[in-house]
Amino acid sequence: MTISSPDIIRAAGISRTFGKGAGAVTVLKDVNLSLPAGRLIAFKGRSGSGKTTLVNLLGALDRPTEGTILFGGRDIAALPERRRDEIRRGEMGLVFQSFALIPLMTALENVEFMLRIAGYPAAGRRAAAAEALEQVGLTPRMHHRPYELSGGEQQRTAIARAIAHKPKLILADEPTAELDSRTGLTIVKIFRDLVQQGLSVILTTHDPAIMEIVDQVYELEDGRIVAVH
Ligand SMILES: Nc1ncnc2c1ncn2[C@@H]1O[C@H](COP(=O)(O)OP(=O)(O)O)[C@@H](O)[C@H]1O
Ligand SMILES: [Mg+2]
Question: Exposure check for the chain: N or C terminus, fewer CB within 10 A?
Answer without folding.
Answer: N
